[in-house]
Amino acid sequence: MSLSKTEKIWHNGKFIRWDDANIHVLSHVVNYGSGVFEGIRCYHTEQGPAIFRLREHMQRLLNSAHIYRMDPKFSVDELSKAALELVQANKVDACYVRPLIFRGYGDVGVDPTTCPIEVYLACWEWGKYLGEEAIRSGIDVCVSSWNRPAPNTLPQMAKAVANYMNSQLIKMEAKSNGYAEGIALDVNGYVSEGSGENIFVLMIDSLITPPLANSSLPGITRNSIVTICHDLGIPVAEQTIQREALYIADEVFFTGTAAEITPVRSVDHIKVGAGTRGPVTKRIQDDFFAITSGKKPDRHGWLSPVGAPANAPALR
Ligand SMILES: Cc1ncc(COP(=O)(O)O)c(C=O)c1O
User: Fold this and answer.
1) Which of 3, 102, 1, 95 is nearest to 54 (CA)?
2) Which of 151, 291, 301, 309 is deepest in the core (most CB within 10 A)?
3) C-alpha atoms less than 13 angstroms from C-alpha of 111 in its C-beta half-sphere
4) Model confidence over 59-83: pLDDT tens digits?
5) 159 is known as an active-site residue
6) In this predicted model, what pLDDT tens digit does every residue of 164-201 receive, in sequence order?
């Protein structure tokens, strides 16, 4: 993810210059990983930029903060409004929006409660995470030797900064072995998710995705794909998935804000289906990208147009 600087960053209710968004090295988050965050896409549409599922992302951000007893003192509405203003102020079109809440500078003990809560929103222009070609032809992935954290260790319903130390192990191992991405199993050996993506598996005309209790993040793209499947009449269910199901599946794909819908064409060098993007994956992609580009009506109110109030009706 290359970073192309924009002009402004939102900090605790005010805009500051990009270069002034600095923190002290002894901030609690730097030492103990005490932060939660979001990744949100703002899509280009003919009517102007529009942020995808903005309120759902801000709600998940506040849920993550709540799990870690952080009170940022901003509501979903206020954060959503700030994100729309940020994209507008930076005069960007398609971009990535990164909200962050963390424990700042104050104390260096493990107890974080005396440290201030800092809230930042940044955005920058950004293309496809795994590449355009990946969206069309799929990627080669492996099952990681790293598991997702067990339940009641690091909570996986929180999108916490610290969880991404585990994601980094998965990603670095996969890349150093020549794969684009790794799939992590949970503590019991069941399929969980990618380092930064949820996973769907097509078996005998039905799509399945692991339940959240298999240590997967409550992905907002995952939720959107389930909704699209209902619309398209594609059977979809949450179901525990064994590792070997990945090898005999007809289709496998990742979902996520960054990965969008990325087909998986092989797992551990074993071809998935025909070894290329499958027809069900393509049907879902076509609908998803038609909605996010504004080419199809936004039938679920998923897009918040930049330049309109946060609670304005979605694009139709
Ligand atoms: C570990 C992990 N799982 C799943 C996802 C997909 O979630 P979403 O669709 O909300 O981006 C992400 C990305 O945020 C992630 O980091």
Assistant:
1) 95
2) 291
3) 2
4) 999 999 999 999 999 999 999 999 9
5) yes
6) 999 999 999 999 999 999 999 999 999 999 999 999 99
